[in-house]
């Protein structure tokens, strides 16, 4: 059977018809449904046009898909044939078109027919993690000796797998197709479409637990890849997969073949297994055994995950008859995807040498653990600070908290000097670590990246690991190197006392005056971008209470709060059972932000502190305030939940508070005018103040007196200029 398709073959296979018949100069040997991927200057390209309606119908939801008939207008010169449901009349003179009923089904039909033209091995790869790395390693090892068709990017789904199945029509020396769980689910088993000669399962982990609920269910679905295995084909399974999950995979493979091979980092009964690894600073030597013979390779990327995937790829090629020794020698030059164990060697502006292993391409719990283990092994070669920067793992469903807790013992044993966390589920992990180990928890990638360089000494080592979805952690990969390069100082004595930190993070104060009637800034003084390390939780709570209506004269007895100490502005002791009116508690928050007053009001009006924080978070989002501006109720600095706000945030809060300014206390008198508002802060002094329609916001002063002095001076200077 000839490689590629004629136009007529395609029309017959798809039960389609020609909109226009143009002469065919060469067989169709490649297919794309993204016209931007059509190769320029190459003949034999076919574009499969998928309409927005068809794409959304197939995926059963509205997606931002651009109609293929529209997109191809920019790229039509790069293709010889278009398969489409609706004719593209303006292209009739230029490109042959075959009209079909359903373009997505047509792609699946073409993939099945193309497989009949493929006479060389097809490798299908699935697994919770490791699919892409294994595919890329195989491509790297074969690139100089074989013509390979392999999955590109994330085309491992119900639409991507048939696309790459169709590409097999050219009969390359090897086909390597990733098959995700999406392509093995109940909507259709695409392993039956591409019929692999080799089926590989790289891992079974906690990915997809939000829908499948257990790793046994994940294994059951992943095992469906073996349904498509050609009779007597080769099954390759990672033997380090959990015992029960491995059994599910093995039994399913056994139904199709007796050729089942395994590989392992720890199990010496596997067909190919690790014997020894030797770490150096920028290289790892791996010694493994296959058929009673030891082989060696060097690798730049040090993780157990990459090591495991390399062993799987070498086993696959060895079983297909390739010389394993020559293949192993090529491993050293392998480079994976960006941000997969990517080494970034950086220098700060003051010439501190800082290495980052950026493994932020994606994450699962097993790969997080592997990365932390690698971090521990590699830190021996660094004299400076060793820093873990960990984002949360996405798509774990209702087991997210439980599974993230699994990381805690590995972190505690990692010998990290500092650990930084990012994302909702990493917050509880950070809370479980000793304070002297914590660099901080953040929910903003830029804030996180700005803070880390202060903790880096010369010859420091950083591991960056987390999921790309569910937060903005992925941006850390770009922000952190940039922040390191411009960093000019290390804080050499970072202690649990935050005063050392605030002197570096907020060394300059800033004041801004804002005309609320004209909605414009009327003056600013100092540093407009000054940034705090405290929060505005109490101020947002007050705003909520004003909106709800404070029951001024109602009396309540103080609950037993851990912060019950000292006396109120009215000289009442903060003791359990002490009576306060709600107005007294509110004034305490306005003037001192005493945490017991904050907690009591949160309890009285929201029933508990957690519910109050949820409402605060909602209002922060509604006002478009920096999310990290209010991470706790009291606003106090906490190393395990790093807060930050800017003057722009205070202006937004001030606008919302304007209608309640008559209820705010007089903070100071300036040139005979009373200024009402709130002065707050412990490490630095900040304010939101009003004189009628003018709002004054300040941040970063070393004391309330300093704040009042600078504010008075700024207002007087502005008055003189006007």
UniProtKB/TrEMBL annotation:
Cited InterPro entries: Mur-like_cat_sf, Mur_ligase_C, Mur_ligase_C_dom_sf, Mur_ligase_cen, MurCDEF_CellWall_CoF430Synth
Protein name: UDP-N-acetylmuramyl pentapeptide synthase
Keyword line: ATP-binding, Ligase, Nucleotide-binding
Annotated Mur ligase central domain residues: 125-316
Transmembrane segments: none
Chain ranges of the Mur ligase C-terminal domain: 345-467
Superkingdom classification of source: Bacteria
Originating organism: Siminovitchia thermophila
Taxonomic lineage from the root: Bacteria, Bacillati, Bacillota, Bacilli, Bacillales
């Amino acid at each position: 059977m000839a490689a590629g398709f004629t136009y007529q073959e395609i029309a017959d296979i798809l039960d389609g018809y020609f909109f226009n018949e143009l002469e065919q100069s060469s067989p169709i040997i490649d297919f794309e449904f993204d016209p931007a991927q059509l190769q320029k200057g190459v003949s034999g390209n076919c574009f499969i046009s998928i309409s927005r309606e068809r794409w959304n119908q197939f995926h059963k939801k509205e997606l931002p898909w651009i109609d293929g008939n529209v997109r191809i207008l920019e790229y039509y010169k790069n293709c010889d044939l278009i398969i489409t449901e609706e004719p593209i009349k303006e292209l009739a003179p230029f490109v042959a078109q075959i009209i079909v009923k359903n373009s997505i089904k047509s792609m699946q039909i073409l993939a099945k027919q193309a497989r009949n033209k493929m006479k060389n091995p097809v490798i299908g790869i699935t697994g919770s993690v490791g699919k892409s790395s294994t595919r890329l390693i195989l491509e790297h090892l074969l690139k100089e000796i074989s013509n390979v068709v392999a999955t590109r990017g994330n085309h491992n789904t119900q639409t991507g797998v048939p696309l790459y199945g169709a590409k097999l029509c050219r009969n390359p020396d090897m086909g390597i197709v990733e098959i995700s769980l999406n392509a093995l689910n109940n909507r259709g088993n695409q392993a039956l479409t591409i019929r692999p000669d080799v089926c590989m399962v790289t891992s079974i982990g906690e990915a997809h637990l939000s829908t499948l609920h257990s790793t046994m269910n994940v294994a059951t679905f992943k095992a469906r890849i073996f349904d498509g295995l050609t009779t007597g084909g080769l099954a390759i399974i990672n033997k380090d997969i959990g015992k029960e999950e491995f059994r599910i995979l093995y039994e399913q493979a056994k139904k199709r073949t007796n050729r089942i091979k395994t590989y392992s980092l720890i199990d010496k009964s596997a067909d190919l297994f690790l014997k020894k690894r030797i770490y150096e600073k920028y290289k790892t030597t791996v010694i493994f055994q296959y058929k009673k013979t030891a082989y060696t390779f060097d690798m730049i990327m040090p993780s157990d995950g990459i090591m495991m995937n390399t062993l799987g790829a070498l086993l696959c090629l060895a079983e297909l008859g390739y010389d394993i020794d020559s293949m192993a020698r090529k491993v050293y030059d392998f480079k994976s995807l960006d941000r997969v164990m990517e080494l970034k060697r950086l220098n700060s502006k003051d010439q501190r040498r800082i290495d980052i292993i950026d493994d932020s391409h994606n994450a699962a719990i097993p790969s997080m653990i592997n990365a932390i283990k690698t971090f521990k092994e590699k830190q021996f070669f660094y004299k400076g600070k060793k820093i873990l920067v960990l984002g949360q793992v996405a798509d774990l469903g209702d087991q997210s908290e439980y599974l993230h807790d699994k990381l805690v013992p590995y972190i505690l044993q990692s010998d990290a000097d500092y650990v930084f966390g990012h994302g909702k589920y990493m917050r509880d992990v950070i809370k479980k670590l000793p304070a002297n180990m914590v660099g901080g928890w953040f929910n903003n990638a830029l804030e996180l990246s700005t803070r880390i360089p202060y903790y880096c000494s010369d010859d420091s080592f950083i591991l960056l690991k987390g999921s790309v979805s569910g937060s903005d952690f992925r941006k850390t990969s770009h922000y952190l190197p940039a922040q390191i390069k411009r960093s000019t100082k290390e804080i050499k004595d970072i202690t649990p006392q935050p005063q050392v930190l605030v002197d570096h993070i907020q060394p300059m104060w800033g004041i801004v005056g804002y005309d609320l009637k004209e909605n414009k800034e009327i003056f600013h003084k100092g540093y407009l971008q000054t940034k705090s390390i405290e929060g505005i939780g109490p101020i947002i709570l007050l705003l909520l209470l004003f909106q709800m209506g404070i029951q001024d004269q109602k009396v309540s007895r103080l609950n037993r709060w851990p912060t019950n100490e000292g006396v109120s502005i009215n000289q009442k002791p903060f003791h359990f059972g002490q009576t306060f009116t709600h107005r007294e508690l509110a004034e305490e928050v306005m003037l001192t932000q005493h945490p017991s007053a904050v907690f009591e009001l949160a309890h009285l009006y929201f029933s508990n502190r957690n519910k109050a924080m949820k409402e605060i978070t909602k209002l922060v989002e509604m006002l478009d305030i920096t999310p990290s501006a209010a991470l706790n109720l009291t606003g106090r600095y906490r190393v395990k939940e790093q807060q930050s706000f800017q003057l722009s945030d205070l202006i937004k809060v001030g606008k919302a508070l304007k209608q309640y300014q008559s209820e705010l206390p007089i903070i100071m008198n300036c040139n005979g005018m009373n200024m009402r508002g709130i002065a707050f802060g412990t490490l630095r002094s900040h304010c939101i103040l009003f004189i009628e329609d003018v709002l004054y916001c300040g941040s970063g002063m070393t004391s309330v007196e300093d704040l009042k002095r600078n504010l008075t001076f700024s207002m007087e200077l502005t008055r003189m200029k006007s």
